[in-house]
Write a structure and sequence with these properties.
Helix content: 25-40%
CATH architecture: Alpha-Beta Barrel
CATH superfamily: Aldolase class I
Number of helices: 9
Largest sheet: 7 strands, mixed
Strand order of the largest sheet: 1-2-3-4-5-6-7
CATH topology: TIM Barrel
Bound molecules: iron/sulfur cluster
Number of domains: 1
Shape: globular
Low-confidence stretches: none
Structural class: alpha/beta
Mean pLDDT: 94
Distance between the termini: 50 Å
Length: 232
Amino acid sequence: MNGLPAVKGFIETSFVDWQGRMASVVFLPRCNFRCPYCHNHRLVTDPDQYRTLDLEGVFAKLEGLRGWVDGVCVSGGEPTIHTLLPQFLEEFKERGWPVKLDTNGSKPKMVETILMTGLAEAFSVDVKAPLESIPYRKNAGRGADPASVARTLAILADWGADVEVRTTVHPALLTIEECVRLRAQVSEIFGRPIKVKWQLCRGEDTLDPALLSEHTLKLAEFDKLVEEIEGA
Ligand code: SF4
């Protein structure tokens, strides 16, 4: 179908993108956020440098993985900025592929449409910072609106959707106190304690080159930081 979002990347098998499942991952271009630590920034700012994959070719590869792969993560970039995302996801549904949608939560109406049409079984929402303007802009760029992210979380909570909340931590951008506040705010929206999946910021090839020279965490330091957040 013409006008569907272009597929700019495809990973055949991943153990880490959909908890408990072996999944393939499809990457869509562009994003409305500008997280300084973004390591997919070429896909965000200059997606034309990547070849567009033929969707039928992707489905042919998926067919060869049937029985081995349990579902497909639709990621990016930011998938929900594409107005024809529902039609894109429909193509997977028609072929019997369960989908998990990865989103930055900035497009609550699109997420609601996906929920209403049953086009995704699960969602991962990247919550960038406490749901407040200043830390959100610091972690996701000037255009990032935490109220939209909060609305998306509330919609997912109302629907009782299968949701994973993820946060990338860079010590120059997010403090332990902010992480604790973020978790409390998200838990309040869901009306129950939410376990946030803290992710280590890879201090390499970041959107903002200044971050490369900033202190980035080594794995052991990150584990200690997560312990502190969880213990707070
Ligand atoms: S939300 Fe941030 S990290 Fe994710 S693709 Fe957009 S700019 Fe990159």
